[in-house]
Task: structure prediction
Amino acid sequence: MSDKMIKSMVYTSLLAALVCVATFTIKVPSVVTNGYTHLGDGFIFIAVILLGGKNGAWAGSIGAALADILGGYSHYAIPTFIIKGIMALLMGYIIKKMPQNNKLSWILGAIVGSVWQVVAYYVVGSIMVGSFISTLMDIPGNTIQSLAGIIVSVIFVVAFRNTSIGKNIIK
Result:
């Protein structure tokens, strides 16, 4: 195994752990779907910024699903794994397809990924609860969660953009 591959695995694992901790520690429960709102999305967006779409998706999927399992929300672990992975892949795809001089492509990617997440959790929650009406009340919480995640990632980018490491990895 090459040094580059090992380094990639370590960074992906580290960010998966950060996603898990950010998701697990501060959460606001939802009474309708037995889910919760958290700050983990910000670290998923940061993972995509730092690692790219593919490894960011692995970090986000594993970290968020692990937080669900550890936090007593195991019924959401598989949907979370899929939803967060696709959210990160969408963000990574948009970053990759946008012109390289567009410094805010990652924000557009995070917004598109967030819209996917809100819709996907609405559908999954509705299926789990058996009602597409009562779960409408979870849309604002998931939207706030996504907005908070975008804000967390903006703070990260602003704080680290001008550092020696940030100049090499944050566009």
